[in-house]
Structure formats: C-alpha cells, structure tokens
Design goal:
Layout (H helix, E strand, L loop, with lengths): L25 H14 L2 H11 L7 E2 H4 L7 H13 L3 E6 L2 E6 L3 H9 L10
Antiparallel strand pairs: 1-3, 2-3
Length: about 120
C-alpha cells in the first residue's frame, strides 16, 4: 500500500491558506478577523445558519428570518448588514422584501482554513 499524499485540485485557498499551512499576513488576518467578529455574535451565527440551511443557491426572505428572534426588525437588519459587510451573505430587494443568501464558497473557504490534516501516527 502506498502512503502517497494526493493533491486536491479545484480548491482556491490562495485568499486564506489553512491555519497550519503558513502564517497569515496582515491583510489575511484583518479579513478573517472581520469574518470571525461577525460570527462571534449568537444572533448573527443563527441568522447565517438559517440562511445557509436553505442549501446551495437557496435564499430566504427577511420576513421569514425576523419571527425566529425576539428582536425588532431594525435590530435584525443591523445584524444582517454586519454579515453582508463581512462578506458572508448578499441580498436583493424585491418589492418590499429583501432576500438573503450565503455567498458561494464562503463557508467552504472558512472550513478549509480551519481544517488541519492529520499526520500519520498523530492522535487527537
């Protein structure tokens, strides 16, 4: 049996290399800090989860998000704005409603950044 490592192709990790692959430069650290700061709030984390649970390409109306929280509509809008500014979601106004979706690849890039590879013989 060969213990050859295979290179994974088709994954763009140039913007944020894995946590253990190389140190972050100042720009990468600032970009990731903005994302993690946005995710550091329980309301924003739940909002992202509600939006992401619609699946790839799925979107959700703000009218469906607001009732899930015991918060005012302006407060929900503020949290959604911070998620947009962090580059996690985007939106589109259609009439009186705004629809939100997770930006393609964002969660995969975060997962790739946080994933470490197990070395042979290493234990968790």
């Amino acid at each position: 049996m060969s213990k050859q490592e295979l290179e994974v192709i088709g994954q763009d990790t140039a913007c944020c290399p894995g946590l253990t692959s190389s140190p972050l430069d100042e720009g990468q650290a600032a970009d990731l800090a903005k994302v993690f700061k946005a995710l550091g709030d329980p309301v924003r984390l739940r909002l992202l989860s509600l939006i992401a649970s619609r699946g790839e390409g799925g979107e959700v109306c703000v009218c469906e998000l607001t009732p899930a929280f015991d918060l005012s509509q302006p407060t929900i809008s503020h949290h959604l704005k911070l998620l947009r500014q962090a580059g996690l979601i985007d939106c589109e106004r259609r009439g009186t409603w705004v629809y939100y979706w997770v930006l393609p690849g964002v969660l995969d890039r975060l997962a790739a950044f946080l994933t470490t590879t197990q070395r042979a013989g290493a234990t968790a």
